[in-house]
C-alpha cells in the first residue's frame, strides 16, 4: 500500500512539474481538415465525343447506394472534359483532387471503361471499372492549372454505359486569420 501511495505521489508531482514548465497560451499544432468544392464549380468544357453532365442521382455500385453528382458516358468511344483549377492569382489554391466513381450494378452487360486523369496534359492516374465496380483517385493538384478526365470504352464494337462520380472534389485549406 505504501508503494502505491509513493507511486501516485510521484505521478502527481511529475504532472505538476510538467504543467509548470509547459509554455502558457501556446496552441499545439494540429492538422486542419481541408475544405472542398465540387469540381464542376470550376470552368469545365467538353473535350470528347461522348457526353458528361452534372446530374444528381442515386446509383447502386458494388451493392451499395451512392449519390452521384456527375456522370460521363463514353458510348462506343470516349467522353472527356477539362476543368480550369487556378483561374486567377490570389484565388484559392487547391491542394487535392478526390474522385470516387464506378459503374452501376445493373449495367452488367456493358464493357469495362477506362478512366484517365490528366494534370496539365500529363496522364497522372488510370483506373478501369466494370459494372458493379468502384474506384478512387486522389491527386496533389497544388501546382496544377487544368485537370482533364476521360472515360474510354474498352470494346468499341459495343456500347459502354456511364461512369458515375459521387465524389469529384477539390480540397483547399481553410483561411487562417491572425
Distinctive features:
five-stranded antiparallel beta sheet; Jelly Rolls; mainly beta; 178 residues; six-stranded antiparallel beta sheet; 1 helix; single chain
Structural account:
The chain is mostly beta strands and 178 residues long. It has one domain: NPCBM/NEW2 domain (Jelly Rolls), CATH 2.60.120.1060. Helices cover 11% and strands 47% of the residues. It is built from 1 helix and 11 strands. It has one helix at residues 2-21; strands spanning 35-38, 43-46, 51-61, 64-73, 78-84, 96-102, 113-119, 122-129, 134-140, 146-153, 163-172. Strands 1, 3, 4, 6, 9 and 11 form a 6-stranded antiparallel β-sheet that branches. A hairpin with a 2-residue loop joins strand 7 and strand 8 (122-129). It is extended and about 85 Å long.
Summarize the structure.
The chain is mostly beta strands. 11% of the residues lie in helices and 47% in strands.
The CATH class: Mainly Beta
Tally of domains: 1
- The fraction of residues assigned to DSSP E strands is over 45%
State the fourth-level CATH superfamily: NPCBM/NEW2 domain
Remind me, CATH topology? Answer: Jelly Rolls
How far the N terminus sits from the C terminus, by CA atoms, comes to 52 Å
Quaternary state reads: single chain
> How many distinct beta strands?
11
Mean pLDDT: 85
How many whole angstroms does the radius of gyration measure? 24 Å
Helix content: 10-25%
For the largest beta-sheet, the strand count, sense and barrel status come to:
6 strands, antiparallel
Keywords: Signal
Signal peptide: 1-29
Protein name: Glycosyl hydrolase family 98 putative carbohydrate-binding module domain-containing protein
Organism: Symplocastrum torsivum CPER-KK1
Amino acid at each position: 500500500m505504501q508503494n502505491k501511495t509513493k507511486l501516485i505521489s510521484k505521478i502527481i508531482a511529475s504532472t505538476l512539474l510538467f504543467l509548470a514548465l509547459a509554455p502558457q497560451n501556446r496552441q499545439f499544432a494540429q492538422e486542419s481538415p481541408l475544405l472542398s468544392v465540387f469540381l464542376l464549380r470550376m470552368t469545365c468544357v467538353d473535350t470528347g465525343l461522348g457526353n458528361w453532365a452534372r446530374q444528381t442521382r442515386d446509383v447502386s455500385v458494388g451493392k451499395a447506394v451512392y449519390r452521384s453528382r456527375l456522370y460521363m458516358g463514353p458510348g462506343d468511344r470516349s467522353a472527356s472534359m477539362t476543368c480550369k483549377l487556378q483561374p486567377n492569382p490570389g484565388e484559392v489554391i487547391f491542394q487535392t483532387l478526390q474522385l470516387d466513381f464506378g459503374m452501376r450494378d445493373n449495367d452488367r452487360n456493358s464493357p469495362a471503361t477506362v478512366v484517365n486523369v490528366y494534370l496539365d496534359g500529363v496522364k497522372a492516374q488510370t483506373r478501369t471499372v466494370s459494372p458493379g465496380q468502384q474506384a478512387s483517385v486522389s491527386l496533389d493538384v497544388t501546382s496544377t492549372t487544368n485537370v482533364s478526365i476521360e472515360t474510354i470504352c474498352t470494346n468499341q464494337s459495343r456500347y459502354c454505359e456511364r461512369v458515375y462520380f459521387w465524389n469529384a472534389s477539390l480540397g483547399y485549406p481553410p483561411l487562417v486569420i491572425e
